[in-house]
Every structure is written in C-alpha cells, then in structure tokens.
Amino acid sequence: MRIEEARILVVDDELELLEIFAAWLGRSGCEVFTAPNGAEALKTLQTEKIDVLISDIRMPIMDGVTLVRQINEKESAPPKILFVSGYGNLSRREIHGLGVEALLDKPLSRQALLQAMDRCLSDPTIKWLTPSTEPMNLNASLDMASLEKALATRSFTLGRGGCSLNCNLPLKEGATIDLSLRFAKEGLSLEAQGTVLWVDSDQGKAGVAFDYLSPECREWVLNRIEKEAPRCFVPAC
Amino acid sequence: MAWEPGLLQLHVVSESLIALACFLASIALLRIIHLRQGFRFNSILYCLAASGVAFGINHEMQAVMLAYPNNWVNVGIDVATAAISILTLIVLVRVVPDVFAIPDRIADHRFQELMDNAPDAIMQVDAMGTIIIANQTAEQMFGYDHQELIGCNVDLLVPHAHRAAHGAEVQNFIHSGAFRRVDKGTLDRHGLRKDGSEFSVEIGLSPVKTERGLLVTAVIRDVTDRKQLEHELERERDLRGQRNEVLARLAAELAHEIKNPLAIIHARASDLREMATDEALLNTAFVAQTCDSIVKTTERAIRVIRGVEALAHRGSHDPMQKTDVHTMIEQSVDLLRTRYETHGISLEVIIPEDLPMIECREVQIEQILVNLLTNAFDAIEADQSSMRWVQVRAAMRPPTDEINSAKAVQIDVVDGGPGISPEVRGHLMETFFTTKPKGAGMGIGLSVSRTIAEDHGGSLVLMPPDWPTCFRLTLSVLPARTEGSST
Q1: How confident is the model at residue B25 (pLDDT cuts 50, 70, 90)?
Q2: Quick one: closest CA in A to B265, which residue?
Q3: A82: closest CA among A35, A119, A110, A49?
C-alpha cells in the first residue's frame, strides 16, 4: 500500500505533537485521525478502518501498551502499529512481542516517521526483496536438527517481521546481521539480512527483524508466516 | 668427764627447755589438727606432733639420766624416737607432691582478677550444665550475685523459649563436638537477665577435660549494641537503595517529560527548515506561529527542570527533628486557608489532643500536606458536581495493624471532589502522571510526596473506596530504643 492511500490514526496526549504529526502525514496525502489517549483511539478504531496506528506509550486514561493489548483482543484485522515515545525503559522485546512494528524515539523527524510508515505499509512479499549493499555488523550461522522441533521447543520462532532464536553469539542490539540457519531434517535453510532488536544474554536468546530474505528461502518463510499468522512482529520467546 | 656444778645446771635447764619447746610445738600441731578439720595434710601434722613428743622426751631424758642413769630406758626412748622420725620422713615424702599442688594464692588472685576484668562473661559449666565458675562480668551481664550464679544450672540464663534448643545443643556439644574438638567459632544466641529482660549474645564454647570430668568454658559477649548498629546500618542501606531506585525512576521519567517538548521544538524547527528551502512556500504568519510555539515549549521544558531542581533541594538536608503534629498541620493549612475561603471551600482540621511528637523533616512533611491540599482544591474546582469540603484528620495508627507494629501517626486528607477513577488510581503515584491540563501541574507532586514519606520510613497511599478521595500519610513516631529488649 502506498502511503497516500493509507488511513492513519495518531494517538498522543501531547496535543501539539498530535497536531504536528497530523500535519506531516496530511502533507503526504494520507487520511489522518487523531486521539488524545488509548480509550479514544479504541473508539475511532470501532468506526474507522485504520491501516496504521501511531501511538505514544505513556498517556493518561489508557496507555499505549494497554491500547495494543485491547486491539489484539478485539480486532480481527488490526492495523500496523508504530510506537513513538520518549520513555526509554520499555523493553523492545515486549513491545515487538505485542505486535508493534517499530519503536521510534522522540524527538523524531518527519522523514524518520514516513520511512517507518513506508516500511510497515509495504507488502511482505516485496519488502524483503532487496539485499543491503552495506556490510553487515555481525554474522550468525547456526545448524538445527529440525525446523518442526525448533518451532515446537521455541528455540526458533517466527513473527510477522522477523524471528527470535536461541543463540549464544555475542549479539548487540541495533546491529545488522547476516543470518544463516540450516534445518537438517527438512533440508531447509534460511539466509537473511536483519537487525538485532533485542538480546537476552542470560537466556541466550535474541530477536531479529528481517530486512532481506534470499530467494531460496523466501517462499517457505512467507508460507510459514502466512500459515501461522502470528500477531507478534518478532516473538518475545 | 666430771660435770662442773654450773655447767650441769646449764645442761639440765637447756635440755628441759628443748623438751618443753618440743612438747609445746606438738600441742600447737594438735591444735591445728583440731581447728582445721578436713585439712588435707593431717597425717604429716600427726607425725610431726608425735616426733615433737618423742624428741621432747628424748631431751628430757638427757637431764634425768644424770641423776638416774639407766641405759635400757635411754636406748628404748632413742629407738622409739628413731621409729617416729622414720615414719614422719616417709609420710613427708609421700605428701610432698600434694603440697606442690596447693594453689599459689597470689597467682590465683591474679588469675581471678584477669577473669573478672575480661570484657566478656566467662563461665565454666559441667556436663550437667551446673555453673562452676563465673567471672564478675558474667554477674554484671546477667544481674546475679556470685553466690546466686555458682551452682545454678546454666538454663537460668537462657530465655524460656530457647531452653529446649539450648539443652539439646549443650548435650550435642558435649557428646560430639568436645571430643572431636571442633569447638571454636561463635553462636548467635539470646541471654536472659535476672530482671527478665532478654538480650543478644554471641557465645564461644570450648571443652576442658579435668579431674571433675568434662567441663565447658563459655565466653559470652553482649552484642546488643552491635546488633542495634547493624540493624540501623541495614535500614540506612535499604533507604539508600530505595532513594536510588526513586532517583533512577525520576531520571528516566524526567527524560520522558523533557523529550515531549524537545520533540515539539524539533518538529517545529524542521518544518521551518523545510519551508526555507522554497521561497514560494514562505508564510510569515506560519513562521511567527511556529516560533511562538518553539519559545513557549522551551519555557515549558525549563519549568520541568526547575521544578525538579527545587524538589531535589527543598528540606532534604534538614536534620530529622521531633515535631509537633498539630503545629505542623496548622502551618500547612494556614498557607492555603485564604485560597480555600475565597473559593468557598470549607477546610476542617481534626486532631486529637494527645498525639505524640514525631521525628521528621518538618519542611518536607509540610510540602506533602500542602501538595495534598492543593490537589484536593484543584479536584474540587475542576468538577461542578464536587462537594465543597476538605478535611485533614490526624490519629494514631490503630494498634491492630500487625504488618508494622511500630507506633505511627496517620494524617488523612479527605476531599469532597469527584473521586478518582480506577483507571487513574493505577497511575496516580507515577512521576509526571497528571490529570490536570498540560501546564497546570507537572505530575511530580504525589510521587515526590510518596518518596519523602518513604524516606521517613512512612507511606503515602490513596485509600479505598473511590469516594470520598482520601490520601493517608503515615509517619512513624520516633523509633523507640527500648532498654535492652532487642532480639
């Protein structure tokens, strides 16, 4: 979907920011709705079809996290969700596990907002087509016995936008990564470029958002995601 | 050889005097035996007395012989004297080791002094637990006389609740520990004084094998003061930890509160920059409006920072002082009374006469009260349906509260405003959470008030039910240091 066709709901208790975001998005041609808190946003969602929800996290009456939980419970076709927050100590693992596509830090530029919008509006079948020409920061190559077993034991799980996996490599949040996984039993492999969203070194787990999937693995990965239709963007476990 | 008459007289007199001295010495010895019954060395005294008599007769015979010479009698007495002398020698030889074993009174005295001056109580008990030795420190520590302590069972000094465990421990020590001599190290225990009070002690036990069987030496230290100090240090550490936690939270939330204005300023400035790329787009009215917004928002950010700075300093370095609750509440109420009166809101203060003084930083507690009263005022003003009254009620915390049994004063600030919804209740104490319009309040008051209350070892909570709104500030009365009853 192109950005000018999108219907967007912006939620923030900071009314001046709400006004600024609405103006920015309006200039790009989207249809913009606003709400000052989560409760009002839920009301709008009941009456309007919304493609992208851009929400603050800390708000009176109903905060962003509660709003997303309510949406996950109530909405059968939930919008893509972006968080915009100045609140630094919320766990990205939890946020992406809830299904939020991205967490943008305040202050942010119009360009950054539009880029994030663009990413979450693009169709998964085309958004992972182009590899980055930049060298990746990290490189992880793992052999697993079986995909089904890995999924069952949650040592590898897929979300709408990436995966979480057991990995004892020294990964760093925010780093780009070349991911190479091989599943012996099924004879499948996953070759991807991604961004490390979170690392839990105690549990030896990490969450990675996909940026590119190699043509060999794209089909089975997309099929798998479509089949399981996970709500999470990147699974929290 | 012939005796000159003078020489003869001298001989008779001296022999008689020697004999007399020997008899008298014997009598003296017999008298000692008679007076010191049970004296361990009576056998040698009897022998010496017998020797004295024998020597006395022997010497007397020397004088008598001159007048009535009789060799049979003379030799007979010699034989008897010799026999008694030999017997005395034998007894003496046998008694010597025992004599060496007699304690040196001076050394004994010095040892006793050393014991008595020891800073710790030192006691020796036998396998049955009977106290055999106790130094003066032990007497003073437990409040007993020497006579009361010696011969008593050591259970006397152990609190009733701990006696069974103590008995088992002693038996265990005697039957296993002592023989394996794994006897060092100290134990944390409780002591019981004669007056019934208990105190914390540290006990070191060591076994001693003696002719009376196995004895246990116990060195006991009163650690009441140390425990008290440890307790205070721990509390201090807890408070510091709490303070750091609050500070970290405050810092994170301050960052959040500053980032919103920054986001606005950033967005406004980048809009201006975008406009500046094309002269055709330039709209002076928009530029003016945007710049106004930037100025206004910057001022808002500065207000937040100033507010936090002020909170960080006000009263936090004052020493804790005994404070009269009544005066403190009246002073806080006076600050707001005019404001309440001009808006037609009644402000009632209910304080019982007999409230104790509390230890606190008065300025900080007044800050909490002013904050609560301001919130109550704002809540009433913000809603048409409000009942226009506020009450400040102080009372002792009911003693039934078992969670924290220390004496404490409760101060309730109750208002007839619209009440607080369950959604808001959950967030109420968070820093920067506010229900007031942006700019009217920063949302710092309640969380800082709570921090201050907790810093005082108290609490600030919103009481159920939803209406009327009641905030309860609980502050403990001076933490009483009762005499030696710490456990």
Answers
A1: very high
A2: A107
A3: A119
Q: How far is B291 from chain A (nearest CA, A)?
A: 13
Ramachandran class of A61: left when φ > 0, alpha when ψ lies in -120 to 50, beta otherwise: left
CB contact under 8 A, B434 and A15: no
**Buried b vs exposed e over A46-83: b needs ≥16 C-beta within 10 Å?**
eeeebbbbbbbbbbbbbbbbbbbebbeeeeeebbbbbb
Interface contact flag, B297 A16, Cβ < 8 Å: yes
B259 touching chain A per CB within 8 A: yes
Residue type for position A17: L
> How many CB atoms lie under 10 A from the CB of residue B404?
13
Judged by CB atoms closer than 8 Å, whether chains meet at B264 and A58 is answered as no
* A24: chain B residues, CB-CB within 8 Å: 267
Whether residue A27 lies within 8 A of chain B, CB to CB, comes out as no
Task: Tell whether A85 lies on the interface with B, counting CB pairs under 8 A.
Answer: yes
**Closest Cα in chain A, distance from residue B265 (Å):** 8
> How many residues does the structure list for chain B?
487
pLDDT band with cut points at 50, 70 and 90 for residue B403: low
pLDDT at B262: 92
Distance, CA of B331 to CA of B366 (rounded, Å): 8
The per-residue pLDDT for range B120-168, each reduced to its tens digit, is 999 998 888 889 889 999 999 999 998 888 888 888 898 888 888 877 7
ipTM surpassing 0.85, yes or no?
Answer: no
Pair B216, B133: CB distance under 8 Å: no
pLDDT at B483: 36
Q: Chain B partners of A85 at a C-beta cutoff of 8 Å?
A: 256
Conformational region of residue B310, where left means phi above 0, alpha means psi within -120 to 50, and beta covers everything else: alpha
Contacts of B424 in chain A (CB under 8 A): 60-61
Contact B408, B456 (CB under 8 A): no
Q: Do A107 and B267 touch (CB under 8 A)?
A: yes
Q: Which of A10, A8, A75, A107 is nearest to A231 (CA)?
A: A75
Whether residues A86 and B255 touch (CB distance < 8 A) is answered with: yes
- Token pair 């980032």: residue: B259
- B225 pLDDT exceeds 60? yes
User: Which of chain B's residues have a Cβ under 8 Å away from the Cβ of A89?
Assistant: 252
The yes-or-no verdict on residue B79 having pLDDT over 80 is yes
Q: Which of A15, A20, A63 sits opposite B267 (nearest CB)?
A: A20
CA geometry: angle at A56 spanning B263 and A85, to 5°? 50
The pLDDT score that the predictor gives to residue B438 is 46
In this predicted structure, the answer to whether residue B206 has a pLDDT above a threshold of 80 is yes
Backbone angles phi, psi at B211, to 5 degrees: -65, -15
Q: pLDDT digit string (tens) for B313-364?
A: 656 667 788 889 998 898 888 878 877 887 889 999 999 988 888 988 888 8
Q: How far apart are CA B25 and CA B37, in angstroms?
A: 19
Instruction: Point out the residues of chain A with pLDDT beneath 50.
Output: none
Burial of B411 (C-beta count, 10 Å sphere; 0-12/13-18/19+): buried
- Whether A90 has its CB under 8 Å from any CB of chain B: the answer is no
Identify the closest residue of chain A to B263 by CA–CA distance.
Answer: A107
Count how many pairs of residues, chain A against chain B, have C-beta atoms within 8 Å.
67
Its pTM surpasses 0.90: no
